Amino acid sequence: MESSNTNRIPLSQSGFTLIEIMIAVAIISILAAISMVGYQTHIRKTQIMTIYQEINNFRTPYQMLMNEGAGVTAFSPTGLNVGEKSKHCQFSVIPPNADAVTPNAVTCQIQNLSYLSNEYISLNLTANGKWHCTASTGISKFYLPQDCQ
């Protein structure tokens, strides 16, 4: 009869050590932190671009009212047939000045974005009839569209 010791297969250890697991978790944490910063930046740029697109919806109706010689009362969001409010904007519109230079002709007072409270983006009408976008100083130029910088 053979002894039971000769038939045994030596057991090898498998798996990860605690140090290896901790290093893997640390690497994953660093990658997650880096991606969150990029994600937040992308979200902010997208939100500001959406606001810029919403305020641009006022250009054509505003110009049409100017060409028709509309009265002062027509120059409002409702007079332009555009909503007074959106998810992130409270809009205000002022009538054009006699010389056609109208700063802050259309303004979006930004709301519902904690990192941009009390900030605004506005469209200014220049003397040559072109529109120029401006933003309050609290909005980083990094997030603004090229037309607003």
Broad shape: rod-shaped
Total domain modules: 1
Return the CATH class: Alpha Beta
In the CATH hierarchy, the third-tier topology is known as Glycoprotein, Type 4 Pilin
Strand coverage percent: 15-25%
Rounded mean pLDDT is 87
Rg, alpha carbons: 30 Å
Main sheet record:
4 strands, antiparallel
Provide the spatial order of strands within the biggest beta sheet: 1-2-3-4
> Low-confidence parts, pLDDT < 50 over ≥5 residues?
none
Decide which structural class fits the backbone.
alpha+beta
Roughly how many Å apart are the termini?
91 Å
Helix-strand layout with pairing:
Layout: H1 18-56, H2 59-68, E1 89-93, E2 102-110, E3 120-125, E4 131-135
Antiparallel strand pairs: 1-2, 2-3, 3-4
